[in-house]
DNA sequence: CTGAAAGCGCTTACAG
DNA sequence: CTGAAAGCGCTTACAG
């Protein structure tokens, strides 16, 4: 059977209090000699504290919840077969573990579930994996019943840590990259309406055009979902412009892969007839042919930063001074853009 | 402040015991009338049980640990940027949640960590995400201190649930597929030595050859790691056989993608000069050109089955009658194999 | 069907 | 620097 504090205290000939103080590093309350003795017995007995008991009495659990919000309409499956998710979870778990926290992962379909989890386990903080969560969890985020971190949110709720990417710059960079390679008839693909993040990216696209005195043409904006199917549809439409469009910028690598496919099905050669730029710099950029030039938003760094801000808030009890961070992005050059010069 | 059992009991004018029985569904011990009254008060007060307290007294937590073993030599990062991981975690978490369990994710580098987690939280069961874990956790698995599920393990530890794929059949299918398209000079790529899983796949390859009276040639086995870099190296070597080899079967899609790259760099046209078959049927199969024909092992189904067996063991307290399951595999046809007829 | 008592393994708050 | 007491919010085991 597992040993308890009491057992250790008896073996060491001290009170439970003293053992507790040793374990919790309150070394100013215990003599060096006692510390050593107690620690030795702990090691000998392979004592492990019962965290449920600790949690019960201290009203804190050192558990952080990673919340994956799943609206029921969505295809839960494709939602998760996603390197973004595992990279995020991996980076967050690692940082939490280094800091003595535990990671509870939970998908949530209703806001009630969230409160329940929170109070069930005295969860110390919550990290939302998907920006979409804010529609479902608007109330929750507005109230912020515990430290919360979220990504890519454009509402900047008070009291909620928010780590974003510079989405405007992302599309600015990819559009500029195409322009610098001699393109001026550049399409943009994404159903940005009602989506602040995609709208921000559209703005970056427009900004790059404007800066280079290229008129913005609404007919070059293709409002398809930034996924594979949307990309295929967009690729076909772009091909139907019979050469007028020479480059296309996107908001997702998978969408870019779809565009390549759709354009090819319509007889275009990539990149000779059409240059394509992705977004996210996923591993798949290496597997397409031509290899996909893409915008990289350092996912691991985003996860790390959000986690650190959250832990800081938990430790200090104070909301971070800079809770809204915008991470830089960069373009990763491969072979999907051809120079027209 | 959160309500407690005691508060609810007072409001309802009953004892804590009765409230507890209502909550835990021991309805044979409470009158229907009392149940209704108590349930209503619980709802009114938005009462949520404190699971730390429950865990402390019942010596069980309803927490299941998903263990991602990370040996220090490995590149922890690439290890996780993997759709396999997120698909597994997603499927497992969902099933656990449906059954009232909580999912704790933890990466582990030393076996001590495991025991600690187990005892710290009274974890009910453990699911190992990676088969590699068995080297690191041999002792742990041999002793099985709690219900454990693992994947693709060839040792079949007593008392450990083990869900595998039919690896022999996987390579048998892909090799046969190539044979049926007129190929007889077929290479196999994987550093199978010392790896039971890959050896099993090699056996499937041999079996298909034998069955079709094609001699097995050791020089057609290329012992490279089944990753992108290994694939590139193998692709180059295969190309150096100047046309003698017309097809290659692999044990990973990423490796197949590398082979395509390496062979192309050496001047081969895919699939005209070299047909390629992948393994895992990842999403990337759609993104390569030609699209990759691959062997599919239903990952989600594997995760689900393992989880269900584990929960069964936890509930009944008895080790499942069929703890070692071998899942079927199938070939998914795309465009990376050309017919020689 | 209902409940009073004891206890799970810790920490908090206090006294010395 | 050390410890005795009380209590966290539940469930177990028992009595009625």
Overview of this structure, please?
- 2 copies of one chain form a homodimer.
- Chain A is an alpha/beta fold and 341 residues long.
- Chain A folds into 3 domains: 5-49, 434 Repressor (Amino-terminal Domain) (Orthogonal Bundle), CATH 1.10.260.40; 63-166 and 300-328, 3-Layer(aba) Sandwich (Rossmann fold), CATH 3.40.50.2300; 167-297, Response regulator (Rossmann fold).
- Chain A is built from 14 helices and 12 strands.
- Chain A has helices spanning 5-12, 16-23, 32-45, 51-58, 76-80, 83-98, 111-121, 133-136, 138-143, 167-180, 196-211, 228-239, 253-265, 299-316; strands spanning 63-69, 102-108, 125-128, 148-151, 160-165, 186-189, 221-222, 247-249, 275-279, 293-296, 324-327, 330-332.
- In chain A, the strands form 2 sheets. Chain A has a 6-stranded parallel β-sheet, with helices on both faces.
- In chain A, strand 6, helix 11 and strand 7 (221-222) form a beta-alpha-beta unit.
- The longest helix of chain A has 18 residues, at 299-316.
- The first copy, chain A, is elongated and about 85 Å long.
- Strand 2 (102-108) of chain A pairs antiparallel with strand 2 (102-108) of chain B.
Low-confidence segments of chain A, ≥5 residues, pLDDT <50? none
DSSP strand content of chain A:
15-25%
Query: Structurally, how many domains make up the residues of chain A?
Result: 3
Give the oligomeric state.
Answer: homodimer
Gyration radius from CA atoms of chain A, angstroms: 26 Å
Strand line-up in the sheet with most strands of chain A:
2-1-3-4-5-11
Helix content of chain A: 40-55%
Shape of chain A: elongated
Provide the CATH topology of the largest domain in chain A: Rossmann fold
- Named at the architecture level, the CATH assignment of the largest domain in chain A is 3-Layer(aba) Sandwich
SSE order of chain A, one letter for each helix or strand: HHHHEHHEHEHHEEHEHEHEHEEHEE
CATH top level of the largest domain in chain A? Alpha Beta
CATH superfamily of the largest domain in chain A: Response regulator
The largest β sheet of chain A comes out as:
6 strands, parallel
The chain pair with the largest interface is: A-B, 49 and 49 residues
SS element count, helices of chain A: 14
Structural class of chain A: alpha/beta
